[in-house]
Amino acid sequence: MQTILVDSGPLVALFSSRDMHHARVAAFLAGYAGAMLTTWPVVTEVCHLISRENRVKFLQWAAVGGIMVRDMGDDAVDAMLPFVQKYDDLPMDVADASLLLLAQQTGILDVLTIDVADFSIYRLPGGRQFNIFPE
After folding, report:
1. N or C terminus of the chain: which is more exposed, having fewer CB within 10 Å?
2. Where are the alpha helices (DSSP H) in 1-135?
3. How confident is the model over 47-91, as pLDDT tens digits?
4. Domain ranges within the chain, ordered by starting residue
5. What confidence tens digit (pLDDT) does each residue in 52-61 have?
6. Is residue 37 within 8 Å of 5, Cβ to Cβ?
7. Which is the CATH superfamily of the domain at 3-128?
């Protein structure tokens, strides 16, 4: 089964019907049959950005398997720090840094994001770059 990493923006759009990216994200996910994987910093950011009512719906959806949330380990902050330092000029937020670390840990380079500008710049060790969806 294919697995894609998921950034905050598409999740906010999915649970906010007035978001300008809602239809595009919903259409992509309607045709996507794989698993979706994210991090706790992404979940936290989504919960901060959506309404209280949608927050409950989002968490219920996640709880029944809508998305898998990966614990990145006790050394995650230390492991994310080089990414945040490298991309400080953007600046990189913790949610994005957590997805870079998750990509490094899993080898998954497909990412669902609306932040094309930043994810087009980010590189993993060895120069590997992300495959960005939806296109």
Report:
1. N
2. 8-14, 22-30, 40-49, 52-63, 76-86, 94-106, 116-121
3. 999 999 999 999 999 999 999 999 989 999 999 999 999 999 999
4. 3-128
5. 999 999 999 9
6. yes
7. 5'-nuclease (3.40.50.1010)
